[in-house]
């Protein structure tokens, strides 16, 4: 699974999404998809269509397909790849939080309609259509300024990031309230959620695309070189979630483990006989420390226990 193939597939679906060429129905399940996996993959397709588009869901299927029916990929491993890839492709940004808040509004509106339709008209007559939505608690999220700007198209984001650097504000934090308390706040949510059309132009998407493709590439290499380590590499996706500092820490720790242990092993530069155990040991040492002191010490310790390949 060469990296270039993943990049070309991502770009193809990026442009299809931009021009709105989205007339086909939902993508089909991969050929030879195990029956037990069908419901989970179908749910992922629906979620990714809601998150972005039909073509984005098709990209998910195209990324999953090379692992379906592969001799070294058992049902449990395939299920984990499918589930974790869907989670990472639906990464959490301010646009997604607005989408989820709007979903609460729709659910509340549905509950209100159901209440009226089941004979509670008198009880509900005095309630405006947004009463139930107004009872939804506000979500207040704290982002770094550069994180918010990363959700913008690179053409706009790059000069803004340069300006933040000039003022020294790149890491400044700002709180955003996602509210559905009134018609104005709901309208604002719709505007924010509508920015998903720009998501695939964004700096954040480029980073996420590169991460997913590298993760899949490492899984592919493991299935060829150390099949026993594949499950541990798949599970490294759980290191990354959310937004803000925890997200950045997870990304940095993931790359430290891949660059320090996994890639050198596959490249033949490090003779780790049990890569899965080394990954587990390194992950246990990861701490919420931007300097990664404990993790780096552990990786160095693991590397010191085995001779360099060819020595």
Could you outline the blueprint of secondary structure elements for this entry?
Layout: H1 3-18, H2 38-51, H3 54-64, H4 75-89, H5 94-117, H6 121-124, H7 131-134, E1 139-144, H8 145-149, H9 154-167, E2 173-178, H10 183-194, H11 196-199, H12 203-225, H13 230-235, H14 244-267, H15 275-285, H16 293-304
Helix pairs in contact: 1-3, 1-12, 2-3, 2-4, 5-10, 12-14, 14-15, 14-16, 15-16
Molecular structure report:
The structure is a single chain. With 311 residues, this protein is mainly alpha-helical. It has a domain of 106 residues. Helix content is 64%, strand content 4%. The protein is built from 16 helices and two strands. It has a two-stranded antiparallel sheet. Helix 2 runs antiparallel to helix 3. It starts with a helix and ends in a 7-residue tail after the last helix.
């Amino acid at each position: 699974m060469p990296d270039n193939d993943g990049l070309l597939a991502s770009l193809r679906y990026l442009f299809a999404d931009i021009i709105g060429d989205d007339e086909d129905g939902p993508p089909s399940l991969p050929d030879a998809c195990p029956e037990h996996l069908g419901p989970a993959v179908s749910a992922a397709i629906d979620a990714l269509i809601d998150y972005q588009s039909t073509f984005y869901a098709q990209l998910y299927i195209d990324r999953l397909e090379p692992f379906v029916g592969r001799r070294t990929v058992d049902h449990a491993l395939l299920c984990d790849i499918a589930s974790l890839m869907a989670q990472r492709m639906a990464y959490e940004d301010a646009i997604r939080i607005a989408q989820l808040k709007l979903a609460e509004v729709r659910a509340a509106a549905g509950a209100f309609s159901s209440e009226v339709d089941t004979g509670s008209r008198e009880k509900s007559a005095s309630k405006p259509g947004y009463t139930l939505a107004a009872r939804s608690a506000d979500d207040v999220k704290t982002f770094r300024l550069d994180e918010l700007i990363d959700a913008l198209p690179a053409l706009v984001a790059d000069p803004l990031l340069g300006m933040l650097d000039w003022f020294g504000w790149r890491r400044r934090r700002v709180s955003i309230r996602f509210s559905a308390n009134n018609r104005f706040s709901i309208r604002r949510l719709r505007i924010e959620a509508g920015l998903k059309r720009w998501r695939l132009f964004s700096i954040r998407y480029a980073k996420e695309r590169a991460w997913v493709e590298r993760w899949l590439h490492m899984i592919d290499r493991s299935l060829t070189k150390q099949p026993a380590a594949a499950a541990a590499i798949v599970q490294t996706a759980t290191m990354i979630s959310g937004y803000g500092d925890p997200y950045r820490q997870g990304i940095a720790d993931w790359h430290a483990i891949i660059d320090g242990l996994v890639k050198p092993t596959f490249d033949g530069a490090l003779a780790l006989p049990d890569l899965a155990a080394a990954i587990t040991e390194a992950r246990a040492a990861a701490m919420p420390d931007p300097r990664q002191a404990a993790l780096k010490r552990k990786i160095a310790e693991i590397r010191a226990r085995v001779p360099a390949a060819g020595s």
